[in-house]
Specification:
The chain has a single domain, classed as Histidine kinase-like ATPase, C-terminal domain (Heat Shock Protein 90, 2-Layer Sandwich), CATH 3.30.565. 21% of the residues lie in helices and 25% in strands. The termini are far apart.
Length: 111
C-alpha cells in the first residue's frame, strides 16, 4: 500500500454573534455532483477500491440536521477530485446573560 501525506487543517473562529469551525484536507476532493447532494441521507461518494469500508451515509445528514436545529449552517466545498475539500459549520451565539448561563457550570450562582 502506498501512503500519501494529507494535510488536515482545523480553524475555529469566534465572533460576538457566531462561532464557526472549518476543516480542510488536501488530496481526495469531492466531485461537484456529489457536493450538491452530500448532506442528504444515505448519499455516499464513489468508494473505489481504496475505500472498501463505507458507512451508511447518515453522518453528514445528521450533522446538517443538528446544526440547523440550532439556527446554524453547514457547507462543503471542493474544486474537484485531487483538490481537497473544506467543511464549514457556523452556529449563532446567544447574547449577554443567556450565552453566559449556557457556558456556566451547574450550581454556579452567576448562572
Amino acid at each position: 500500500m502506498t501512503r500519501i501525506a494529507t494535510l488536515l487543517t482545523l480553524s475555529l473562529c469566534l465572533t460576538p454573534i457566531a462561532a464557526s469551525a472549518q476543516t480542510s484536507a488536501t488530496l481526495i476532493g469531492i466531485v461537484q455532483d456529489t457536493l450538491r447532494v452530500l448532506f442528504k441521507p444515505f448519499v455516499q461518494a464513489d468508494q473505489g477500491m481504496d475505500r472498501a469500508n463505507g458507512g451508511l451515509g447518515l453522518g453528514l445528514a445528521l450533522v446538517k440536521g443538528l446544526v440547523e436545529l440550532h439556527g446554524g449552517s453547514v457547507a462543503a466545498r471542493s474544486a474537484g477530485p485531487g483538490e481537497g475539500a473544506e467543511f464549514v459549520v457556523r452556529l449563532p451565539l446567544g447574547t449577554g446573560a443567556a450565552a453566559c448561563s449556557i457556558l456556566a457550570p451547574r450550581g454556579d450562582p452567576a448562572a
